[in-house]
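In response to the reviewer comment on reproducibility (Comment 2.3), we provide here a single inverse folding case reported in full, input and output, so that an independent group could reproduce the run without further information from us. The structure tokens appear first.
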């Protein structure tokens, strides 16, 4: 590990309107280092960009905002040469250029850090950073000493001490993200595009990244920064461009622009509450003198009695988890907080049958179940939304409809045959309800990150899951889509589902949970009802201190 001291639980700096209008200062702009004029791009059945403009000046951090599917990533892929524009023009330092492929973009000083990592797991840190450009002693012979020395020097600019020869596949998600950043910064960059670079980083790592951004802009590097975290906008941004439905909505200085105004520009609607949880609205409370008949008349139609929907007893995995015990009630959102490495994701994978525990048992509605594989979890009506949706939650090359139908193939098949009509009947209503922007033939890998997340959710909404495990459900999701997911959680608990929500967003945990478990080094270090939980108490428990 490149950071041995414990990092604070990421709070992601809760929204504060008072900070709006106080972005970092930038010297007066002169000639734009980059202009994109009237950019258009269409995919089969979808107009991704419709006449979008963007102007970028040297030494500025230009924030690019918009809901999922607004066209942010598509615009940057055109700049990087990954996509070709259908119309419009690109100017670099006033000169019209043609960016036909990534090599053209790199030659003109454009570097892109994509939201989804683009690394080779079986190669080392150094090999990934210098992929295709490793120093050589002779043709075909890598100069390993020089390669490692140059890697150490580059990592030092990020205040990292990752071993250059460390296999990438053994690094954490956050460490791999930092390798991706280092890879993009190799060589001279005039324009640096960062697409959600902090989504997997701790607060300390975010500070390191923002320090680097400040040093880069001081040298005149122009940065396009795509984020869904509005707190980051005011920490590092100078100007902001908002896209909506593939169109340019506004470009303006951040000075004097409020969070509320940005949200309205993105979503074309006011969002009064960032965390619209109806606290305890889905929980059943049966008093001693209540009659079963009165309770059963509830429109929720949930089962009565003290039996929890899910109970974990003494879940232990050597070196990872130790004696984890908790209940999940019907109609409840149980938040799980903790530092990176606390064991939250490992617990989720055991509950979903992806990994096995060394000891302990799992009970669903009072009955013990054996979790040998995800199939057992599906039978127990448990659905997992994994932390890494691309690697663990989706098959990128197939459509959204087929991805949603995958866990339900046995139920849909007739005489061993699975017809596309059956898949469409199952997935269609879910896709419409979640407002997923896709077509019948579009591969999931072509969707925005937020729409991909909705497809993962849709797999379990299409079935009869009653227990949902959401591991970082809003990572890489814009403000409007976050509220959609939160409202979906409310609807699920209103129907009697139970939700375990693992999140590194402390405001999200506090805002959406009925009860909060805090983990520290593989153990439960604290438990709080929503009314008792504060940021200080949760942080203290996450650090292993007395709450």
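Designed residues, in position order:
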């Amino acid at each position: 590990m490149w950071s041995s001291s414990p990092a604070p639980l990421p709070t992601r700096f809760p929204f504060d309107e008072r900070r709006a209008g106080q972005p970092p200062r930038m010297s007066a702009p002169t000639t734009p280092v980059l202009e994109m004029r009237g950019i258009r791009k269409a995919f089969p059945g979808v107009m991704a960009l419709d006449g979008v403009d963007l102007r970028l000046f040297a030494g500025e951090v230009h924030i690019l905002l918009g809901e999922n599917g607004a066209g942010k990533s598509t615009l940057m892929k055109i700049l990087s040469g990954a996509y070709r524009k259908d119309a419009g023009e690109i100017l670099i330092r006033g000169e019209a250029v043609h960016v036909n492929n990534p090599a053209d973009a790199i030659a003109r000083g454009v570097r892109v850090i994509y939201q989804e990592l683009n690394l080779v797991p079986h190669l080392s840190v150094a090999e990934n950073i210098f992929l295709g450009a490793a120093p050589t002693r002779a043709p075909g012979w890598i100069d390993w000493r020089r390669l490692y020395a140059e890697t150490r020097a580059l990592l030092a600019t990020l205040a990292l001490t990752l071993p250059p020869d460390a296999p990438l596949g053994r690094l954490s998600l956050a460490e791999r993200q930092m390798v991706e950043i280092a890879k993009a910064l190799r060589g001279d960059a005039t324009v640096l595009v960062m697409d959600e670079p902090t989504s997997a980083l701790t607060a300390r790592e975010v500070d390191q990244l923002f320090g680097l951004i400040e040093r880069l802009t001081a040298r005149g590097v122009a940065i396009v920064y795509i984020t869904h975290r509005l707190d980051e906008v005011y920490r590092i941004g100078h100007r902001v461009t908002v896209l909506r439905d593939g169109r340019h909505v506004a470009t303006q200085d951040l000075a004097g622009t409020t969070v509320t105004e940005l949200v309205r520009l993105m979503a074309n609607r006011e969002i009064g509450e960032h965390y619209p949880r109806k606290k305890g609205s889905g929980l059943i409370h049966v008093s001693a003198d209540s009659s079963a008949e009165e309770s059963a008349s509830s429109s929720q139609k949930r089962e009565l009695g003290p039996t929890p929907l899910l109970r974990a007893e003494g879940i232990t995995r050597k070196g990872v988890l130790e004696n984890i015990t908790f209940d999940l009630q019907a109609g409840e959102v149980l938040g799980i907080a903790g530092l990176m490495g606390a064991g939250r994701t490992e617990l989720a994978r055991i509950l979903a049958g992806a990994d096995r525990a060394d000891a302990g048992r799992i009970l669903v509605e009072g009955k013990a179940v054996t979790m040998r594989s995800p199939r057992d979890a599906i039978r127990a009506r448990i659905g997992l939304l994994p932390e890494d949706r691309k690697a663990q939650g989706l098959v990128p090359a197939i459509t959204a409809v087929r991805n949603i139908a995958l866990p339900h193939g046995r139920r849909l098949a007739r005489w061993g045959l699975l017809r596309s009509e059956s898949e469409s009947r199952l997935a269609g209503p879910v896709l419409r309800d979640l407002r997923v922007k896709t077509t019948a033939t579009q591969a999931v890998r072509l969707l925005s990150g937020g729409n991909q997340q909705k497809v993962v959710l849709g797999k379990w909404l299409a079935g009869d899951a009653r227990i949902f495990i959401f591991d970082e459900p809003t990572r890489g999701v814009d403000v409007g889509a976050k509220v959609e997911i939160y409202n979906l959680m409310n609807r699920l608990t209103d129907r009697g589902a139970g939700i375990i929500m693992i999140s590194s967003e402390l405001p999200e945990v506090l805002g959406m949970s009925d009860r909060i478990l805090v983990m520290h080094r593989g153990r439960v270090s604290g438990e709080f009802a929503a009314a008792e939980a504060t940021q200080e108490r949760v942080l203290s428990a996450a650090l292993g201190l007395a709450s």
